[in-house]
Design goal:
This protein is mainly alpha-helical. It contains 6 helices and no strands. It has helices at residues 2-18, 30-55, 58-84, 86-102, 109-121, 136-141. α1 (2-18) packs antiparallel against α2 (30-55) and α2 packs antiparallel against α3. The longest helix has 27 residues, at 58-84. The chain is elongated. The relative contact order is 0.09. It is a multi-pass membrane protein. It is found in: Membrane. It holds the Pfam family Tetraspanin. It comes from Ciconia maguari.
Length: 168
């Protein structure tokens, strides 16, 4: 169980690194850190529980049970925090994404992140391709198109033009 929890926590943190430009609130990783800490404690406590079982110590097994209950409460707390703050994280991510999309120029590091995000998630814009119509980049190019990272992978000659939305 400790190995599984460690994997989940590490996976969340590793995934966060790809999208950290979109999250202003650094506390968004708090549940993942709590899960990793709980996994480490569970491993140590599991070893103590095994030793208490081999020695058939009632005191050791009672202590083991109490510690397991504390860990369970910590896990439930992490779940509740994640559930309660999911809307806040969603709102923060959307607000930050809008500001990053506003700064898009096609060459900056933020632009590279936006292109990567759109290709990985197979999306265009924050909600849809029309989000690009309000950006400074869209107005400055004057060609009525979105970045090529919005194009569907199966479209070979996609130009990103808004008059061909089936290609986006």
């Amino acid at each position: 169980a400790a190995a599984g929890l460690s994997y989940v926590g590490a996976y969340v943190i590793n995934t966060y690194k790809s999208y950290d430009n979109f999250l202003q609130d650094k506390y968004a990783l708090l549940p993942a850190v709590i899960i990793i800490c709980v996994a480490v404690v569970m491993f140590v406590i599991g070893l103590i529980g095994c030793c208490a079982t081999f020695r058939e110590s009632r005191v050791g097994l009672g202590l083991f049970l109490a510690i397991i209950l504390v860990i369970f409460i910590a896990e439930v707390s992490a779940f509740v925090l994640g559930f309660v703050y999911r809307e806040k994280v969603k709102t923060d991510v959307q607000g930050t994404m809008h500001s990053v999309f506003e700064k898009y120029d096609g060459r900056s590091p933020e632009s590279t992140v936006v292109n990567y995000l759109q290709k990985q998630l197979h999306c265009c814009g924050v909600k849809n391709y029309s989000d690009w119509t309000t950006t400074q980049w869209f107005n400055s190019t004057g060609n009525n198109s979105v970045p090529l990272s919005c194009c569907r992978e199966d479209m070979k000659n996609c130009t990103g033009r808004l008059d061909q939305p089936q290609e986006l």
